[in-house]
UniProtKB/TrEMBL annotation:
SMART domains given in the database record: CYCLIN (SM00385)
PANTHER family to which the protein is assigned, alphabetical: CYCLIN
GO cellular component: nucleus
A Pfam family: Cyclin_N
Domain Cyclin-like residue range list: 86-167
Keyword Iron on entry: no
Designated gene of the protein: LOC103722997
Family affiliation: Belongs to the cyclin family.
Protein name: Cyclin-H1-1
Spans annotated as Disordered: 297-341
Length: 341
């Protein structure tokens, strides 16, 4: 059986916070340059993974006159990614997929956007492709047609993006998720505490809450920074603060006394505190947040949508001004009546 310690997951996909920041910034800056050069950021993807770039704007006059859409900044990209990672969880829950499918899809999604900006590849498309790829890799066979139909999306879009997703992942498709580690640690805790039958229920509660904590952890950068075992222990520690099932620090000491580890117990506790901090900073985008960001993304993908939006806005302002001026000339009784209607 494959082992995390010797995996590509550990060797290639566990980064430092600085490395993540640099990758996100590089992808964002590349998309911004493309927007300046082409006036559009959307990349067309073929089934074989090949990309079609837009034609550059050669006419300097047109270039000067055209309205360049505002690009998304890194924070907005991050918010959009969190939004669609949560959507992955919702779609997987709707299809009743196991936690492993959900976790693998989210990690694929996170890795993809270390290479690309959301301005280049729409996260809705990549989200669905990551779920589809995860189902294939985890042998939970669902056709693209079935997946697309289930959420009323064109399945061809899923297939078109499949190869670019694999390429962006470097074909490193084996992913280690913290949910399985939670199960293993809970079983170990039961042995550590020498649990009697009547005490089983509280460990079930511990497990259930820990899995909910993992769901939240998966929406942070933590899966790109820490091993699944560390994520699982962080989730169990938070769960134990709710249920008070065992002396968690003593349990950690028992782990270190039984196993050889490259980390010290103080390092492990520090990493769990960092994960707590990340959860505290986690912002789930509101509908209002997403409306604004989505509008910006649409204008990057299709600048004509920005022009149409401005026309509608201008027309609306003109109409409201005209209505206001008409109202000024109306009798007081009419103005009062219309204001109340």
């Amino acid at each position: 059986m494959a082992d995390f310690q010797t995996s590509t997951h550990r060797a290639k996909w566990i980064s430092t916070p600085q490395e993540l920041l640099e990758k996100h910034q590089a992808a964002n800056q590349r998309a911004i340059k493309m927007l300046e050069q082409y006036g559009i950021t959307r990349l067309e993807v073929d089934v074989d993974g090949s990309l079609s770039y837009p034609e550059p704007v050669l006419d300097q006059k047109d270039n000067a006159e055209r309205s360049v859409p505002k690009p998304l900044n890194c924070d907005e990209e991050q918010l959009m990614q969190v939004f669609y990672e949560q959507k992955i969880q919702e779609v997987c829950a709707a299809f009743k997929f196991p936690h492993k499918i959900q976790a693998t899809a989210i990690i694929y999604f996170k890795r993809f956007y270390l290479q690309w900006s959301v301005m280049e590849h729409h996260p809705k498309h990549i989200m669905l492709t990551c779920i589809y790829a995860s189902c294939k890799v985890e042998e939970n066979h669902v056709s693209a047609e079935e997946l697309g139909k289930g959420i009323q999306q064109d399945h061809q879009m899923i297939l078109n993006n499949e190869m670019i997703v694999y390429q962006s992942l470097g074909f490193d498709l084996i992913v280690y998720a913290p949910y399985r580690s939670v199960e293993g640690f809970v079983e170990d805790m039961e042995e550590f505490c020498q649990v009697r039958n009547e005490e089983q229920e509280k460990f079930q509660d511990l497990r259930g809450t820990a899995k909910l904590e993992v769901d939240k952890i998966m929406l942070t950068d933590a899966p790109l920074l820490y091993a699944p075992g560390q994520l699982a222990l962080a989730a169990l520690r938070r769960s134990n603060e709710v249920h008070r099932v065992l002396d968690f620090e003593r349990y950690l000491e028992s782990i270190f006394s039984r196993q050889r580890s490259s980390h010290s117990i103080s390092q492990l506790i520090e990493s769990m505190k960092t994960i707590d901090f990340m959860l505290g900073k986690l912002k789930i985008p509101s509908t209002k947040d997403m409306r604004h960001i989505d509008r910006k993304l649409k204008s990057c993908w299709d600048p004509s949508s920005q022009d149409e939006s401005k026309k509608r806005e201008k027309k609306s302002k003109h109409k409201s001004k005209r209505t206001a001026s008409e109202m000024q000339g109306a009798p007081a009784e009419v103005r009062k009546f219309q204001g109340a209607s």
